[in-house]
# Entry
Amino acid sequence: MLNTGSLDEAVAVAYGWPSSAAHDPQESNRLLLELNRAIAAGEIDYRPFGTLPTVVPVGTLAPALDLPTIDGGRFDLRKERGHPVLVSFLRHAG
# Structure
């Protein structure tokens, strides 16, 4: 199973939140909602990928991804080459 604790801790550090937020789902959700509101309102210049282009040209190969799925399986993006794919990252609380 994926250890989400270390991911939550990394998110808290990245945003300058108190480390306690990583272990309190209500607090981390409150902080994320406030961050999303501030980004949408234009109060925060949010560039999570730095200087990467915001539009990737059609035909650009995606990076290799081999990730765990929420049902315990694996997802290998390389196996989907030639097919449209939407990859959604979410926190699995289980």
